[in-house]
Amino acid sequence: MAKLVGVDKWLFFTTMVLVVAGLVMVFSASAVVDQERYHSAYTFIFTQAIWAALGVLALLVLMHVHISYYNSPRFIYPALCVTTILLVLVFLMPGSHHTHRWIRFGDFFTLQPSELAKPVLVFFLAWFLHTRLNAMQAWKRTLFPVALIPILFILLVVFQPDLGTALVLAGVTAMMLVLAGMEWKILFGACCAALPGLAAMLLVPWRFKRILVFLSPEADPQGAGYHIYQSLIAVGTGGLTGRGYMEGMQKLFYLPEASTDFIFANIAEELGFIGAMFIVILFAVFGARGLRSVFRCTDPFARLVAFGITTMILLQAFFNISVVLSLVPNKGIPLPLISHGGTSLFVTLASIGILLNISRQAE
């Protein structure tokens, strides 16, 4: 029978180190640009620090809320309704960079509903699947109904457009179905059925151009390949030990989104291979401790939630670092706990608070 033990200290302190590293590197990547644009070097770091403090507070609170609270229609249905409404509401908001991803409240507060959709989807899948673990082979009664919410969320996110987050949602869904016992051949068939839709999205002219740029970024270094070309320059010039903290050159109006999507490139340039690998190792430790909670937990609902949260964060980290290193096409996904972005940081920390609560359960 499960009993409560101490919280996973490795998981907790790894998270805190990643948050501190994020604050340090956001300041380095944004200070000069902030000074030029807003006449203050502390604009981005100030908002990021506020969100970090709120996120840590949420983590500490949720760390003590028992997981059974979320295993109820009284939580699941309102969470699904609110998230869906927010995902629709973004289309009524003014766009930014030809996208509709944020709900803005003046100049000081923005909300990105797609970030909220990730943990809400995890909770829904865990709630739906944990009582059907022995009926996963009856795929007509499991796969069809469980796929409705993920498909809805994915489509709403795709039309923002944000294909990267949609792929994270799809990846988390697929992995949780596998953990629940869905046969690979059934999942493979579902993926094949989704291929025409994915192909149609990828063949949109601007996305197809991204794929061509991914294959050959040097073909248009001043145009479509500019982002990734500057990212590779930053990573390449960092060497083993880097240029030194605050000494990076690419963030000085060369590398776009240096404090958000491409912050890992700034880390590699200033702290070198050693600093970049330190971040990778931290995520590896986080993943190992998260999966440890999954395997030690006997509650099916809690196990699925722990697995979903862990894979949600690791998938984002994998995609972000892969984009920076030009291993996959540019997807616009932040590096969890590191990149500048209030909604992402807060939601990730709150989710980790729930994971820490689950880690307190042992055999």
Helix content range of the residues, please?
55-70%
Number of helices: 12
- Weakly predicted, low-confidence segments: none
Number of strands: 4
The tally of structural domains comes to 1
Distance between the termini: 6 Å
Strand order of the largest sheet: 1-4
Mean pLDDT: 87
Radius of gyration: 20 Å
Anisotropy-based shape: globular
Write down the secondary-structure element order.
Answer: EHHHEEHHHHHHHHHE
Class inferred from helices and paired strands: mainly alpha
Characterize the main sheet: 2 strands, antiparallel
Proportion of β residues?
under 5%
Describe the structure.
It contains 12 helices and 4 strands; from the N terminus they run βαααββαααααααααβ. The strands form 2 sheets. A two-stranded antiparallel ribbon has the order 1-4. Strands 2-3 form a two-stranded antiparallel sheet. The radius of gyration is 20 Å and the shape is globular. It has one domain. By secondary structure, the protein is mainly α.
